[in-house]
Structures are given as structure tokens and as C-alpha cells.
């Protein structure tokens, strides 16, 4: 079935960037203001799913050549790894720490280990969501 | 306010029960989704509805509301999201394999 | 603070995730997953000894002090179960190496087994009720994936029921959690116990406790076991053995924890109810075990009978009874895994599932036949095998407490178990062989080794019960004295 969806395609091209930016914003602000890895990841995944909806799977696969199962696995590894890291430092599991750094452009910036954990969550969510959507749509064609 | 929400939860549970008892597998899945919404509302209500300000430092003055129910709900949402996604894929595979989305026909025979 | 406690949860998860990346290298996956389980077993033996010398160990995640943060608590009961679960998983993995098939192994079989065991270990070790829910879900998600692995029609059909039932049970779990939080304002198990003890267990709390009873009964297969035989008989043997050995035990563990640590004030209501449910479970389980001829279904109903038996110990709730139940849980994990593996091997050898169509397997593989005999005796509670210690302690305490009905049911169930398995033994194992010389497939070493290992396990658990006695009595002591647990959790840092 071929749908002539000019409106959807045109809008998608613009809106995907807005969604992606918003997703990254949510993820980065997550550790002490509203936001966080999970919803950030969902927003990012929704952008990717939108891309899949408007173009065919093959061309998206060429431009995003990841196995999303591995993305999810990498995310979980990162998230549990930050928890595990605190064991190596001899503090309780899942302890977090933060510090302030002087960065060239951003000035005084707060960097936390939670962000690494959240990055893991983001990757896991994106990976899982896209894997699910793909596994359903692929088997439909078969 | 609590009473209203409890009534709402009751309606949601009724709807979900009706859905989950039907023979169509998609309705069963929708039923479990509605069930999970009902219980999220219940957790929120049980932790006392809005008393105090946003539980974020620097955003508002104390006293803050209890942030725990929200954390619990977020976790529960993540889990129910994963489970619902899994059942959807499962139901789809079963539909492909058995050619039916009717639970009655998926019941199997007594002697296998 | 002791980071040891979290390792049985976090190591399997991390290794499982790493195995996802190693998807094409099956041999490597096998070696790594087996080594992980052996490592976790070794770790839990070490933890048991630490607990013996230093008392209960705990870990506050991220350094947040209880009751505000979530935490893991390792007492003897939990760690004993972690140890047994890890050993059983290691053995089932060996069985899976030569039976599960490459197709499954490439579909992330080993990562899912490791996630399953992570969920099981997490449920045993957690000290927070909501965390218990999360670990349950981790375990269940892995089990959903394992049930459906392979994607045969009958598997998909049974797994839909299994998944929906468990989703519903999890829903009730959340409802019970919400009520409990609304009533007591805390989810830390030790803190809940303290508050219940202070305020007294009023009818409202007793009702909540019954909702919890309902939830965990569904998971453990106590009375509400109607989903169990179907879904435990469809997956591949190694998976079924893991389920039969571990999943119901997690529900049983949760029941023990809830009704010895938190809701122990109204035994005339809750424990009475558990007793009735256990009795009915035994009767219905016995009917099932006698009614079917399909080996897998008989084995599944034997799981149900054991659940009933173990919970008799909880219903009586004297220190001796609890001790007996702990012995019996450990025994049952090993013996049920063995039984499932044997049933799977029988079906593999003959190609049929009903025992009256099999005959003379002992001529094909004598060791196999005698292993079946050993597990039959062990489950029936014949000394010196491992079932004996648990049965005698539960029986003794039932007499002391005057629960003669439960006593009669417990020993009646032993006879039924013996009969149901001897029936298989006489029909399928003894007699003239039906497999002709040309068709005979020798039982692979990879299938025989795990069976012999578990058989050895049940013998040595019976003979060496003395070695475990210290740990078990310590576990029973903690369970019957909630104050010890509460002190360990809320009593400040060590």
C-alpha cells in the first residue's frame, strides 16, 4: 500500500530536528530539573520512528546503520557500569558524585556521573523502542 | 478530590476488567494497559494528592509534596511499557502462527 | 555498607549484556555464562560465612540511609537461596549446552538466563518492597522471553496465558503496594515491620496482607496454580527445569518474608488461611499428578505439591517448622530441576511424552534409570536423601503444634508423589526396551553429566545436612525473630 503523504513528509523533515533537540535537552537537564533519561530517550526514539514512518525502512537503515539491539545493550551496560564503578572506588553501589569544571565555551559547568547513567538509560530506551517497532513492521512484510 | 480520583480508578478498573475478559487478544492487551493506568493513579492518590510545592530544590518553597509516589509510578510505567510492548510482539507472532486473534481458538485441545 | 550483597544481581546483568555483543561466538557465550554462575555460587558461599561471623550484611544504594534509600539485605535465608539458585542454574546451563540447539543460542538464550537469575537473586536479597516488585518484573520479563524462545505454536499459545496471568498478578502487587504505602508511608521492609508492630495489625492491614498473599500465591502457585502446568510443560527442557526449580521458589520466599517479618501478628487469620490454601493445594496437586500420563504434566503437578508442602511449614510458623521448610526449599530446588531434566531426557530418548508408551529405558542407560529412582526416593522423603530432613522437621512441628490435618495431608502427599513417580519408573524405566538396537541413540554425555551432578547434589544434601545445619538454623532464627532483621537494617551503620 502506497500512501501519498506529502504533508507528513515535509513536516517530518523539519520537525525531526526539533524533536531531536528537545530530546537531548530533556536528557541533559534530567539530573536536577524535570526531564531525564527515560523520557529523553522516548522523545529521541519517537523522532527515529517518525523517520521510519515517512521513508522506507531500507533507506533509513542505510543512513542509521546500527543494530538497535546492540544500542540497547550498550545502554544497559553503561547504566549498570556506572553503578558498578562506584564499587571499584570502595563506596556503596550506585553512589554518584559531581564536580564543577571550567570549560572553554560553557564556562563553569557542573559535570555529574548521573549524566553517564542517564546516557545509558537513553541508549537503552532508544534501542528497545526502535527494536520493538522494527521487529513488528519487518515481520509484517515477510 | 481523593474521592473523585478513587471513583475514576473504579471506572478504569471496570473498563479494564471488561476488556481483559473479552476473547480478542488486542482487547486483552488494551485491558492490561488500562489496568496499569488505574494502579498508577491509585499510587498517586495513596501518596496524598497535591499538598505543598514541587519537590525540586530551588524551584519552590518548602513544604514539598511527597516525591516517592512519582518515582514509583515512573518505574511502574517503564515496566508496564516493556511488558505491553512484549505482549504486543507476542500477540502478533501468535496471530501469524495461528492465523487467529481469538483466544478461544488459541485454547488448544485437551489431548496433545 | 558491604558491596558484596549486590554482586549476585549486578554480575549476571552485566555479563548478560556483554553476551549480547558476543552473539556469534556461541562457545565463548557458554563458557562465560557457566563461569559467571560458578562465580556467583562461590561468592554466595563466602557471603554465608561472612553472615555467620558478622551477622546480617546490608548495602544502602548510593549511600542513602534506610528507610529513605533502597537497600539490599543479605541474611542467611536469602543467601542460602541465592546459593542454591546459582548452583541449579549452572547445572541447567550444562544441560542446555547440548540440548537447546544453536537456533536458540543465537536468539540470546544465555543473556536471558542470566537476566532471569539476576531477577531471582535480586528478589531474594532486596530489603525494599518496591525493589522486590522491580526484581520480580526483571525475572518475569526474562521468563516471558524464555517461554517463547523458539516460537512454536503451542509455546506461543501457552505463553500468552502465562504473560497475562503474570501481568495481572503484578497489577495486584502494585495495588497492595499502593495501599500499604498509603497506610504506613514507607516501603522499606524492616521499617514497615516496625510500624506494623507499633501500631498493631488492625483489620485494614490484615486485609492488605491478604492482597499480598493473593499476589505471591499466584507467583508461587499456592492454590492459584492453574496456569502453572501448562506453561511449565511447553518450553525446552533446560528452561522448564529452571522455571520449576526457581520461579515458584521466589514466590515462596516472598511469602515467607512477608508473613514472618511483617504480618506475623494475626496468625489466627493469615497463617490459618495459608494453612488451608496449602492443604487444598496439596490435594489438587495430587489429583493432577495422578490424573495425567504426560510425563511433563506429572512433573509440573509435583511442583505444585511441593509448594503446598513448603507452605505448611509457614502456616505452623514455629522455629522447627520454618527450619524444616528451609531445608525443603533447598532440597526441592535441586530435586525439581533434576526431575525436569530427567523427564526431558526421557522424551528426547523415546520421542513420546506419555509414560505408558515408553518402556525399558534402564536398558538403554542404566545410570539414567537409577538417577530417576534416586530422585523418586528423595522427593518421597526416604532417608538418607535430601527430602527427608525437611519432611521430618515439618512433620515434627506439625505434631507439636497439633495441626494433625496438615500433618496427614503432608504425609499423604509424600505417598502420592512416590506413587506418581514409581508409576513412571515401573512403566517407562523397567521392562523390555521398546527402542530397537538400530534406533538406539546413546544418551549424550552433556545430558547425563548435569543429571548425575544434581543426583549427587541431592544425596550429599541428605548426608551432609549437618554441614548446612548452622546456616539453616541461623536463617530460621532470623525469620522467627524479626527484631534481628530490623536491628540490622535500621540500627545505624556497622
UniProtKB/TrEMBL annotation, chain A:
Residues 7-131 form the Na+/H+ antiporter MnhB subunit-related protein domain. InterPro entries: CPA3_antiporter_subunitB, MnhB. The chain crosses the membrane at residues 7-28, 34-54, 66-91, 111-134. Pfam families: MnhB (PF04039). GO terms for cellular component: plasma membrane. It is found in: Cell membrane. It is a multi-pass membrane protein. It comes from the Bacteria. Keywords: Cell membrane, Membrane, Transmembrane, Transmembrane helix. Belongs to the CPA3 antiporters (TC 2.A.63) subunit B family. NCBIfam families: PRK12573.1 (NF009223). This is Multisubunit sodium/proton antiporter MrpB subunit. The lineage of its organism: Bacteria, Bacillati, Bacillota, Bacilli, Bacillales.
UniProtKB/TrEMBL annotation, chain B:
It holds the Pfam family Oxidored_q2. Keywords: Cell membrane, Membrane, Transmembrane, Transmembrane helix. The chain crosses the membrane at residues 6-21, 28-47, 67-92. It is found in: Cell membrane. This is Multisubunit sodium/proton antiporter MrpC subunit. InterPro entries: CPA3_antiporter_subunitC, NUOK/Mnh_C1-like. One of its GO terms (cellular component) is plasma membrane. The keyword Transport does not apply. It is a multi-pass membrane protein. Belongs to the CPA3 antiporters (TC 2.A.63) subunit C family.
TrEMBL record, chain C:
It is a multi-pass membrane protein. InterPro entries: CPA3_Na-H_Antiporter_D, NADH_UbQ_OxRdtase, ND/Mrp_TM. It is found in: Cell membrane; Membrane. GO terms for biological process: ATP synthesis coupled electron transport. Residues 127-414 form the NADH:quinone oxidoreductase/Mrp antiporter transmembrane domain. It comes from the Bacteria. It holds the Pfam family Proton_antipo_M. The chain crosses the membrane at residues 6-26, 31-48, 68-95, 107-124, 130-150, 162-184, 204-228, 240-263, 269-292, 299-322, 328-347, 367-389, 401-426, 447-469. One of its GO terms (molecular function) is antiporter activity. One of its GO terms (cellular component) is plasma membrane. Keywords: Antiport, Cell membrane, Membrane, Transmembrane, Transmembrane helix, Transport. Belongs to the CPA3 antiporters (TC 2.A.63) subunit D family. This is Multisubunit sodium/proton antiporter MrpD subunit. It comes from Psychrobacillus insolitus. The lineage of its organism: Bacteria, Bacillati, Bacillota, Bacilli, Bacillales.
Amino acid at each position: 500500500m502506497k500512501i501519498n503523504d506529502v504533508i507528513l513528509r515535509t513536516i517530518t523533515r523539519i520537525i525531526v530536528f526539533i524533536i531531536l533537540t528537545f530530546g537531548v535537552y530533556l536528557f541533559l537537564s534530567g539530573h536536577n530539573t524535570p526531564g531525564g533519561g527515560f523520557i529523553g530517550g522516548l522523545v529521541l526514539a519517537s523522532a527515529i520512528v517518525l523517520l521510519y514512518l515517512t521513508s522506507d525502512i531500507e533507506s533509513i537503515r542505510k543512513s542509521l546503520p546500527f543494530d538497535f539491539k546492540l544500542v540497547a545493550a550498550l545502554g544497559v551496560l553503561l547504566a549498570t557500569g556506572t553503578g558498578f564503578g562506584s564499587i571499584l572506588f570502595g563506596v556503596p553501589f550506585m553512589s554518584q558524585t559531581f564536580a564543577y569544571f571550567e570549560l572553554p565555551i560553557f564556562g563553569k559547568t557542573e559535570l555529574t556521573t548521573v549524566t553517564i547513567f542517564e546516557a545509558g538509560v537513553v541508549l537503552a530506551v532508544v534501542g528497545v523502542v526502535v527494536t520493538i517497532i522494527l521487529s513488528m513492521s519487518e515481520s509484517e512484510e515477510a | 478530590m481523593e474521592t473523585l480520583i478513587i471513583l475514576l480508578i473504579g471506572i478504569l478498573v471496570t473498563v479494564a476488567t471488561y476488556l481483559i475478559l473479552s476473547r480478542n487478544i488486542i482487547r486483552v492487551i488494551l485491558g492490561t494497559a488500562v489496568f496499569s493506568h488505574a494502579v498508577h493513579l491509585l499510587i498517586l492518590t495513596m501518596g496524598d494528592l497535591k499538598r505543598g510545592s514541587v519537590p525540586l530544590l530551588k524551584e519552590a518553597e518548602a513544604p514539598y509534596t511527597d516525591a516517592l509516589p512519582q518515582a514509583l509510578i515512573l518505574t511502574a510505567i517503564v515496566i508496564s511499557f516493556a511488558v505491553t510492548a512484549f505482549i504486543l510482539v507476542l500477540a502478533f507472532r501468535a496471530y501469524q502462527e495461528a492465523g487467529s486473534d481469538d483466544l478461544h481458538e488459541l485454547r488448544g485441545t485437551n489431548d496433545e | 555498607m558491604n558491596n558484596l550483597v549486590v554482586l549476585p544481581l549486578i554480575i549476571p546483568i552485566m555479563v548478560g549484556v556483554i553476551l549480547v555483543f558476543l552473539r556469534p561466538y556461541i562457545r565463548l557465550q557458554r563458557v562465560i555464562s557457566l563461569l559467571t554462575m560458578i562465580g556467583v555460587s562461590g561468592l554466595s558461599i563466602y557471603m554465608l560465612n561472612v553472615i555467620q561471623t558478622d551477622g546480617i550484611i546490608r548495602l544502602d544504594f548510593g549511600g542513602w540511609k534506610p528507610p529513605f534509600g533502597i537497600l539490599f539485605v543479605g541474611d542467611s535465608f536469602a543467601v542460602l537461596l541465592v546459593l542454591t539458585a546459582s548452583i541449579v542454574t549452572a547445572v541447567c546451563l550444562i544441560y542446555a549446552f547440548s540440548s537447546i540447539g544453536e537456533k536458540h543460542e543465537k536468539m540470546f538464550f544465555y543473556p536471558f538466563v542470566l537476566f532471569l537469575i539476576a531477577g531471582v537473586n535480586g528478589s531474594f536479597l532486596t530489603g525494599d518492597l518496591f525493589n522486590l516488585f522491580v526484581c520480580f518484573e526483571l525475572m518475569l520479563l526474562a521468563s516471558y522471553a524464555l517461554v517463547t524462545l523458539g516460537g512454536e505454536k503451542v509455546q506461543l499459545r501457552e505463553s500468552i496465558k502465562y504473560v497475562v496471568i503474570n501481568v495481572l498478578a503484578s497489577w495486584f502487587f502494585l495495588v497492595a503496594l499502593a495501599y500499604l504505602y498509603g497506610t504506613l508511608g514507607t516501603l522499606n521492609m524492616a521499617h514497615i515491620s516496625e510500624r506494623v508492630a507499633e501500631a498493631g495489625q488492625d483489620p485494614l492491614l490484615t486485609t492488605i496482607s491478604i492482597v499480598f498473599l493473593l499476589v505471591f500465591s499466584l507467583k508461587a502457585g499456592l492454590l492459584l496454580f492453574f496456569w502453572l502446568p501448562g506453561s511449565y510443560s511447553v518450553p525446552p527442557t533446560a528452561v522448564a527445569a529452571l522455571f520449576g526449580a526457581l520461579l515458584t521458589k521466589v514466590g515462596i520466599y516472598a511469602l515467607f518474608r512477608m508473613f514472618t517479618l511483617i504480618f506475623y501478628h494475626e496468625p489466627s487469620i493469615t497463617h490459618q488461611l495459608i494453612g488451608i490454601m496449602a492443604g487444598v493445594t496439596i490435594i489438587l496437586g495430587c489429583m493432577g499428578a495422578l490424573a495425567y500420563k504426560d510425563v511433563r504434566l506429572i512433573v509440573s503437578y509435583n511442583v505444585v505439591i511441593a509448594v503446598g508442602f513448603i507452605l505448611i511449614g509457614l502456616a505452623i510458623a514455629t522455629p522447627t517448622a520454618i527450619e524444616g521448610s528451609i531445608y525443603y526449599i533447598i532440597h526441592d530446588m535441586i530435586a525439581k530441576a533434576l526431575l525436569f531434566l530427567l523427564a526431558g531426557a526421557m522424551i528426547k530418548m523415546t520421542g513420546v511424552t506419555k509414560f505408558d508408551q515408553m518402556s525399558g529405558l534402564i536398558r538403554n542407560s542404566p545410570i539414567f534409570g537409577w538417577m530417576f529412582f534416586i530422585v523418586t526416593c528423595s522427593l518421597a522423603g526416604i532417608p538418607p536423601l535430601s527430602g527427608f530432613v525437611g519432611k521430618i522437621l515439618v512433620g515434627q512441628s506439625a505434631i507439636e503444634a497439633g495441626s494433625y490435618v496438615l500433618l496427614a495431608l503432608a504425609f499423604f502427599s509424600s505417598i502420592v508423589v512416590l506413587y506418581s513417580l514409581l508409576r513412571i519408573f515401573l512403566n517407562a524405566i523397567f521392562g523390555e526396551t521398546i527402542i530397537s538396537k538400530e534406533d538406539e541413540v546413546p544418551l549424550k554425555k552433556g545430558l547425563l553429566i548435569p543429571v548425575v551432578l544434581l543426583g549427587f547434589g541431592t544425596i550429599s544434601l541428605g548426608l551432609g545436612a549437618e554441614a548446612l545445619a548452622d546456616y539453616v538454623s541461623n536463617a530460621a532464627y532470623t525469620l522467627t525473630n524479626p527484631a534481628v532483621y530490623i536491628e540490622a537494617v535500621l540500627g545505624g551503620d556497622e
